[in-house]
Each structure stands twice: as structure tokens, then as C-alpha cells.
Amino acid sequence: MKLNAEFIERTEALFGKERFAGFVQALEKEPVVSIRYNEAKKSAEPAAANVPWASAGRYLSSRPLFTADPLFHAGCYYVQEASSMFLEQVIMDFVPSAVRALDLCAAPGGKTTHLLSLLPEGSLLVSNEPVPLRAQVLAENVAKWGKASAMVTRNEPADFSSFRNFFDLVVVDAPCSGEGMFRKEPVAVEQWSVSNVELCVKRQRKILSDVWSSLRPGGLLVYSTCTFNREENEDCVEWIATELGATPLSIDVDPEWGITGSLTQSNLPVYRFIPGFTAGEGFFLAVLRKDGDEPLSQPRSQRLQKNRAKVPAAVQAWLGNPQNFDFAVQGEELLALPKEHVSAMEALSQKLKVLHSGVAVATVKNNKYIPRHSLAMSVELNREAFERVELSREEALAYLHRETLQLPSAPLGYLLLEYENVPLGFVKNIGNRANNMYPAEWRIRKNPTEL
Predict the structure, then answer these.
(1) What phi, psi does 61 have (nearest 5°)?
(2) Distance of CA 357 to CAs 227, 229, 236, 370, 418, Å?
(3) Is the Cα torsion angle 364, 417, 146, 61 positive or negative in sign?
(4) CB 222 within 8 A of CB 171
């Protein structure tokens, strides 16, 4: 790998010669492969090596073709860099009880799905992505993860400024110069420049300034990047502390993990993951507590009251615990919103572009209820409410390719398809064929016979 001369000079000065030499040597090796299990759907397999800072994280010995695994499409695990899973240590150390949280730059969904597994019961997570195509991917991954206390929005950071003191926790995985991805993404090497670093710094500080008012005093900010330079890392943390008003916090880490601390004279409690020293790609994280102490804003909203729906008991029974939800109709979509978060969700929906909220239970047409795919993905699904059909791997891949299935021995009507006892989605069996209800935009593009 040919590195930019300016990058070499700057990074060697920051790392020191010995650490930089180990880093360069690591760049010539294959990236490690890691996944994180969704333990609400499938237990973590013990055979693979554990990611030491993430309870459900596992290293794989090689990179399989994830597209060919139906359990991947069912949301049983997420393919994520091991370094990014360090977020778990923040939640363990500093978030003992339910919070209202914002993952501001959330696509494609690694930290969001991790937070959905980590946050204490009763928490609400809002995941945002301003780029339309990336936001759709984020919404897909959140739906597949299956947690009801989640929203996905597509907005600019400044759009959250009016939600004063609305969040206890804000996670900003900031757009950056991507130096930590050199081994995995060669294009990042070609695109690197000092001017791009400077541009990223300005962008990061604007994002942080725009969202700052939405974090209540006393709340937590998690700031992270996938880059190495001090300008986007230690210098930015110092700026947050002095200009915005926050105190950096120390995280309890095991020295055997090989995590590097601050590389500047500031001696800030920050956490660097450097290939060659930690098993993962480049990553930087700091956690800060906003100065002051004020309560969380408690919104009142009536906007969706008129859309509240009286839902037949048989449809409510599609959820395992329907008493925990309020039902609302938006257009042709029936939503189940967790009762404890309805006011917050309604307040957000008044001003933001919402792509996903709670559980999308059904499409309502002519007073008929058609189960939606997100219901099949939800951990709130009552599987006993539907006739179920177990598929072989070949059948499951055909379904995910959105082919028409033949299920001659199955009952007529809406059927829940499963693979290894995990829901994959719905079909409508009409006898001579079963109409495929898998979302067209999610389908596997490659022919299953080629997988």
C-alpha cells in the first residue's frame, strides 16, 4: 500500500516511529472480520473468538458470503468492525437506567443496532442520517434488528436544535477523513489530503454545535471517528470541552485490549484503536458529560391523536404484548408505538422526516389488514398468531430473491416463513402459488443458484 508522503510525515510524528512502523506493517495484512449477534433473535455462537470489549461480538477466521446466509437477512447478526463495538463500554460505565438517545450520523446502522441491544429497558433511540440513500439502508437495518423503541429520521443536524434538552445521550460518529479505513477501503488512501482533514474538522464542529442544544445539561456525548490525526480527534475533544462546555470522562478498560490513549500533550481520556495493536480497524472515541444538570424535556403533542386507531383484537394479537402499545394509522400504515414513548415520538414526527417508527404492523386497505415485513422482523411478533412454514436454505434464498414459492401442503392465507426457527417474512398462499411479500427494495440481487 502506497501512503501519501504528507500522511506518513504527520502520522509518524503523532504515533512515534515504533508505533508507526507496527501500524504500517499491519496495513499489509488482511483486515479482521467481525460480527455482532442480535441476542434477542439468536444466541451468540461460542465457536468464534470473542471481541473482548463487546459481549455479543465475535471474530471470524475468514469472511463468508453474508448475502448467502438467510440469518443475516433476518437480523440475527450485524457485520461490524470490532473497534466500533467499544461503544458497549460507554453504556456499561455511564448509562445505568433508561434514556432518550440520539445517534446523529447513524447509517448504515452499526452503532444504532448495538445501542438497541445495549440501552436499558425503557430507553428510546432516535437514529438519524441526512443522506437519502444511506437513510433508507439505516431504516432497513433498524427494522431487521427488530426493536420497537426506535425511530429513524432523515434530517440535518441543525434540525434537532429546536429540541432543547430532549436527549440524555447523543452519539456523533462524525464524518471524517477515514484514515482508519485505509486497510479496508483503498479509495480512502487515494482521497486523503491535508485539505480534506481541515474540511472535516470544520464539518465536525458545525455538526456538534448544531446538535448541542438538544443534549440536556448533565447528559452524555459520545464522539467518535475512524481516523487518526489529532485535529479530528484530541483537538476536537478539547474544543468540545472548552467551547461547548463539557467534561471528558474516563472509561474502564483492560490493558490487555491494546487500546492506545491520547497521543498529544493534553492527556485527555480518549481511546484509540490502531491496527497492529488492537484487533480491528482504526477508531477513536471519547465520552463527555455536558456541563450543568437539567431535566429532560417532556414534550406534549396531540398531532397523532386523531390518527389513533381502534384495531381488531385479532390484529392486536399479532404482537406478543399489545397492551404495551398505542396503535396509530398514518396513510395506509398501521403503527404500534410503545406507550411510554408516544409523546416523544409524536413531538419528533411534527418537525422531522420520519422513515421508521415503532413497529409497522400492517397495511390497511378497505378495512383489511395485511401484515407488513417489519412485523415479521420485530421481536414483538407473536409467532403463534400465524401459520408458520419452515424453509430449507434453498427455499429461503429463493424467497429473499423475491421468487414466487410453491407451498401446496401449507394452509391458505398469510403465512409466516421461517428459517432455522427464525422469522424471514410473509407470503400469501393462494393455493397454486404463494405470493412473495418480501420488500422489493431489499431483495437479493444475485440469483440464488449462484450463491
Answers:
(1) -75, -25
(2) 32, 37, 33, 18, 24
(3) negative
(4) yes
Full-model pTM? 0.96
In terms of Cβ atoms closer than 10 Å to its own Cβ (0-12, 13-18, 19+), residue 209 is middle
Q: Report angle CA 327, 331, 335 to the nearest 5 degrees.
A: 25
Tens digit of pLDDT for each residue in 179-216?
Answer: 999 998 888 899 999 999 999 999 999 999 999 999 99
Output phi, psi for 115, to 5 deg.
-60, -40
Which backbone phi and psi does 40 adopt, to 5 degrees? -75, -15
Lookup: cell for 427? 407470503
The span from the CA of 140 to the CA of 406, in Å, is 27
State pLDDT tens for residues 54-103: 999 999 999 999 999 999 999 999 999 999 999 999 999 999 999 999 99
Q: Which residues contact residue 302 at a Cβ distance below 8 angstroms, ignoring those fewer than 6 apart?
A: 346
Amino acid at 182: F
> From CA 117, how far away is CA 180, in angstroms rounded?
25
Phi, psi (5° rounding) for residue 77?
Answer: -160, 165
